[in-house]
Write a structure and sequence with these properties.
Blueprint (H helix, E strand, L loop, with lengths): L3 E3 L5 H10 L7 H7 L5 E7 L2 E10 L4 E9 L8 H16 L5 E3 L6 H4 L23
Helix pairs in contact: 1-2
The structure holds coenzyme A (COA).
Coenzyme A binds next to strand 4, helix 3 and helix 4.
Protein name: N-acetyltransferase domain-containing protein
GO molecular function: acyltransferase activity, transferring groups other than amino-acyl groups
Organism: Pseudobdellovibrio exovorus JSS
Length: 137
């Protein structure tokens, strides 16, 4: 592969930019600065210096683990680069996480994840906090 794959964090600025151009929900630089160092695992793919794809794993390694920030730069989509990212992430998950860990994700596109063993949640429904419903104190 002509691109460089590394297990490293992206800079907060390029992380926020990649999320923005791929249509993922926007994050502030300040939030990224708090978030990124708390990753269990991160993978970046670069063309030269340019960040073209990434993925992260967050959680506690033992009981709860979440896969987040799977994103491929629009100029590089359709090249199956997300598989490279997911293979790296699954290698980490299968080697490092306890077999009883609940490994989950919110899938915008489920075909990316089914081939790695992810299934629809039937028993429990995924939910998230709507900050507009939380009063500020
Ligand atoms: C979703 C995203 C990560 C996909 O990355 P990509 O590298 O462009 O993916 P590709 O289109 O090359 O396809 C990846 C795989 O899905 C398959 N695929 C693509 N479209 C498909 C479809 N409609 N149905 C089934 N499989 C499909 C491809 O064949 C390929 O399979 P393979 O790796 O097993 O050969 C990328 O488009 C992206 O960053 N989108 C915006 C952000 C986003 O939605 N992230 C996911 C959040 S859950």
């Amino acid at each position: 592969m002509k691109y460089t794959l590394k297990n490293e964090l992206p800079a907060p600025e390029e992380y926020c930019h990649l999320r923005q151009i791929t249509g993922l929900s926007p994050k502030t630089i300040a939030a990224a600065q708090v978030s990124l160092p708390r990753s269990l695992h991160a993978v970046t793919l670069r063309n030269g210096d340019q960040l073209i794809a990434m993925g992260r794993v967050i959680g506690d390694l033992g009981c709860h683990v979440q896969i987040v920030d799977i994103a491929v730069h629009p100029d590089y989509q359709g090249l199956k680069l997300s598989r490279v990212i997911m293979e790296n992430i699954m290698d980490f998950v299968t080697k490092e996480c306890h077999r009883c860990a609940f490994v989950n994700l919110f899938a915008d596109v489920d075909y990316l994840y089914q081939k790695f063993g992810f299934v629809d949640s039937v028993k429990s429904k995924g939910m998230y906090l709507d900050w507009n419903r939380v009063s500020q104190s």
